[in-house]
Design a protein that fits this description.
Aminopeptidase, eight-stranded mixed beta sheet, 32% strand
Length: 190
């Protein structure tokens, strides 16, 4: 598989795909929800920023070291955009990657983020041949930490006041899982 190729992924209820122009309205709605943005690096998004972001994500290579690719999370039954997930291959160690995710508030607490990230992690290990995948969460973001634990990721670090975030020093958890751990946990899963 070449870096430019991203086949799209499916799970029982979701489709993980590249963004397209029709996503602008839904993308703006969740990106401008203060509760959704609480633990994210952004606060809000203009329509122009959304259009530029979507245009960039449509063609950004998948798996290129140092380039983070955000992918749309779509409901299979309604085709509604419900959020996005992130995959960035490490620029210094190209067999390691980081994941991230954002979900619109009406779709939270229903297992959609876990389902989407499980598909992305499986893809990264099986198709991109990653060795290790990490995820980070603000320590106050209990839902994100719980999601990574459900995926079988282990908490490897607690970073005390490790970064300045939205006007305050913030603590962060670091989670990780190795390819062989993922494959063992998901043996027999499709």
């Amino acid at each position: 598989m070449t870096l430019d190729t991203f086949p799209g992924l499916t799970s029982p209820r979701l489709k993980i795909r590249r963004f397209d122009d029709a996503d602008v309205s839904a993308f703006l709605a969740y990106r401008n929800d203060a509760e959704v943005a609480r633990f994210q690096s952004w606060n809000c998004c203009s329509e122009e920023e959304a259009r530029q972001f979507i245009e960039e994500m449509k063609t950004l290579p998948c798996g290129e070291p140092g380039k983070g690719l955000q992918l749309a999370i779509e409901m299979t039954d309604t085709s509604a955009l419900i959020g996005d997930c992130y995959l960035e291959v490490d620029s210094r160690e190209p067999r390691q990657a980081e994941i991230g995710f954002t979900l619109a508030r009406p779709y939270q607490k229903q297992g959609f983020a876990t389902e989407a990230i499980a598909a992305v992690v499986g893809y990264a290990f099986q198709e991109l041949d990653m060795h290790r995948i990490v995820g980070r969460a603000d320590c106050r973001n209990i839902a994100s930490a719980a999601l990574m634990e459900r995926l079988g990721m282990r908490r490897e670090g607690y970073h005390l006041q490790s970064y300045w975030f939205k006007g305050e020093w913030t603590d962060e958890y670091l989670y990780a899982i190795l390819k062989d751990e993922w494959l063992k946990k998901n043996r027999g899963a499709t």
